[in-house]
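ok trying again, last paste got cut off:
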Amino acid sequence: MATRPLRKIFIVRLWADADGRWEWQGEVQLAETGELQRIHSAGELLDYLQQTMAPQPDKPPTAGLH
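nice, full thing came through this time. structure:
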């Protein structure tokens, strides 16, 4: 039996500050659990995605949404 790739759904929300100036502000939400992470840079967003997608020692690599 072939294993399925790990898949997760994320919701990313970004917004401008009160003066309408663009700055990295937002949050990323893991749809599966509802967990929210505030982000202030593209690097923070990528770090969160990499950490969340990394295999967990207590879960098989095929766990998650399919």
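cool. The two ends are 15 Å apart (CA to CA). The first strand starts at residue 10 and ends at 14.
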